[in-house]
Structure formats: C-alpha cells, structure tokens
Amino acid sequence: MSNTQHKVLLISTGGTITMVREAGTGALVPADIETFKAYMPELFAGAIQVEIEAFNPLLDSSDISPSKWAQMAQMVYDHYEEYDGFVILHGTDTMSYSASALSFMLEGLNKPVVFTGSQLPVGVLRSDAKENLMTAIEIAAAQDENGDAIVPEVTIFFEDRLFRANRTTKRNAEHFSAFNSYNYPALAKAGVHITYQPHLIHYNSPNAPLVLHTGYDSNVAVLKLFPGIGRPVVRAVLRAKGLRAVVLETFGAGNAPSDKWLYRELKEAVDRGIIIVNKTQCNTGSVEMGLYAVSLNLMKAGVLSGYDITTEALLTKMMYLLGEHGDDPELVKKLLMTNLCGEITVE
Fold first, then answer.
1. What CA–CA distance (Å, rounded) separates 259 from 120?
2. Are residues 314 and 299 in contact, defined by beta-carbon separation less than 8 angstroms?
3. Where are the beta strands (DSSP E) in 188-280?
4. How far is Cα 157 from Cα 189, in angstroms, rounded to an integer?
5. Closest residue by Cα to residue 10 from 115, 163, 106
6. Neighbouring-strand partners of residue 53
7. Could you tell me the sign of the dihedral formed by the alpha carbons of 257, 259, 265, 268, in that order?
8. Which residues, at least 6 apart from 187, have a Cβ–Cβ distance to it below 8 Å?
C-alpha cells in the first residue's frame, strides 16, 4: 500500500448518527458539522484525511426522495478524482433504498462508496456511531498493494459486516445489527482486523470511466399479494394514473392465487404497457417462475421474474431504468432481468 495519505469525503445526509441531545429539553436534534466533529475527534486524528460535506438541512431518512439520491450521486461524481473513497452518513430506515439507487446511478464505479449510520445518536454514551463510522472510513480508504480500491462498489457497513448495498434490507429496528444481505454473503467482516472476501466483490474494468445517471421515474408501485386480496385492490393499483412498473410481491418461489380475474387484471396491465416483475415476499430465496402451477398464470400474463433481488433494489432499478430508457420498454424489460452491478443472481 502506498505511503501517501489517503483522502475520504464524508457526506452527511442526516439520520440518527448525526443527532445530539439538546441541552435545555433533552430532545434529539440534528447536530451542525462543528458539533458533530467535537463528538468525533478520532475522525481527524488518524492517518486518513477526512473532509466533510453535508446536506442543508440534514434529513431524516424517511424524507429522502429520489431527488436526494441524485444529489448524493452528484456529490460523489463531482469529487470523484479528489478522494480515494466516500462515506455517506444516512438514516437507517431508507438506507437500503438510497444505497441501492446509487449502485445504479454510479456506472463504472472504481472507488468505494460506503453507507453507514447508527441505531443510537453520536451523542449517546453507548452509541454505535463511532465504531460504524471509523470502520467505514477505513474501508473507504483501503487499497491493495497496487494502489487499487479493495471494495470499489457501493456498500453498507453496519456493526461488523460490510454488505453489497443492493443486496441489503433493514431487518431490525432495535439491534445494532440493523441490516442483512439474505441472498449474498458479506463482502467483509470487521473484528481485530477487517477480513475482505475479494472473490465476492464486484469489479468494473479498471479503465472504465465513471458515468453519472441522475434521471429517474418514480411512477412505480408495490403490490403485495395476500390471501383474500380482492379485485378492487389489485385494480386500483394497476390502474393508478401514470403507473409504469409494478413490483408484484408473491408467495414462496413466486406463486400467486390462480383466480381468473387476477390473471386478467395482470394481463390487461401488461398489454397496456405496464412492466410487472415477480418478487418473492421471502427474504431468502429466488423466484422460480413455472416451478408450481400457480405461477404459470403469471408467466402467461407477461410478468417478469425478479429472481433473488430485494424489493429495495428492484424499485430503485425500475426508477433508474425508466428514467434512462423509458422510451424503450423492451430494453427496460431486458435490463430488469440482467445483472447490472451484482444485484441479482440470474440462473
């Protein structure tokens, strides 16, 4: 590894990690940059040069929208040549959505973009903020003996695991291990040392230029099937004004009720140009269209397979593809079933 000092840009969007207790009321409020720095002197005492840029105002992750994904991606793109890696502070509730979105928006990425946050605010005694942030910074700066980034993709680091961002789901609102990657192993584990798994990491061509995609189309929906779901509910979703694509959350390996009306509603929606992708409600496993007779109607209706993709990755991939290629629905369909940056396992 080179002896030159590595540089990491810390992008703060907000979230629990940035909060401190207000002296008068005891309420949790977002900390300004100087206050945050005061709680984290370790940031500036190590061998890695850390610089900070922040959203103004800082946002609860529930208020993060696709326009904010574009803002994050733009900040990485604008500073891409200046830094060895990037860490994005983000609230946990929608972190998997934002991180998945950036995996598609930053095409040809060859530097680490590590999302992290905390379950307890930085100003709380038992906070997990410092450990998460300091390890994320170390990962963002990590290079091999050739000076190349060890993990040149968009990831989420939490507690002691580094996951591919577009494979993650928030699994717990209380435990420090807030995230999991159910269908893909962790890229690294942090203990006394950080142990990387190079054979699991996604690498682009080392000479690939970074291409920024900030276009998106959020006219998408999630339709979750349940026993007893009625035609009016399905119809209301599939006939929503402006709708372009739907995540159809099905049972088990991609199964749905065999009611004729459901087949007709789905077939009519597909015929109207709406793209529908089959996503299992199970955290672990993959859609296997046609494995059971009850999924044959979905195939006949023109529903696509989502394989083992997460709902978060599928939604953001839909928005990205519709924003970039919305005038070519056949290309969108093809790319939805193509592994672009490690988000799905295509059989």
1. 47
2. no
3. 188-190, 194-196, 211-212, 220-224, 245-250, 275-280
4. 9
5. 115
6. 11
7. positive
8. 151, 155, 162, 163, 164, 196, 197, 200, 201
Q: Are strands 19-21 and 28-30 parallel, antiparallel or unpaired?
A: antiparallel
Q: Is the peptide bond before 57 cis (omega within 30 degrees of 0)?
A: yes
Query: What long-range pairs does 268-271 form, CB within 8 A, spacing at least 24?
Result: 268/238, 269/238, 269/239, 270/301, 270/302, 270/303, 271/302
**Contact status, residue 102 vs residue 213, Cβ threshold 8 Å:** no
Residue type, 56: N
- The b/e string for 190-204 (b: 16+ C-beta within 10 A; e otherwise) is beeebebeeeebbeb
Q: What is the pLDDT of residues 10-30, one digit of tens each?
A: 999 998 888 877 778 877 777
Average pLDDT for the chain: 92
pLDDT tens profile 294-335: 788 899 999 999 999 999 999 999 999 999 999 999 999 999
Picking from 326, 8, 2, 286, the residue whose alpha carbon sits closest to that of residue 141 is: 8
Q: How far apart are CA 36 and CA 73, in angstroms?
A: 23
Tokens of 137: 């910074």
Number of neighbours of residue 330 by Cβ within 10 angstroms: 9
Half-sphere exposure in the Cβ direction for 65 (13 Å, CA): 5
pLDDT tens-digit map of 195-206 = 999 999 999 988
Give the single-character DSSP code of 175: S
Residues with a known catalytic role = 16
Entry pTM: 0.94
Which amino acid makes up residue 40? M
* 65 residue type, one letter: S
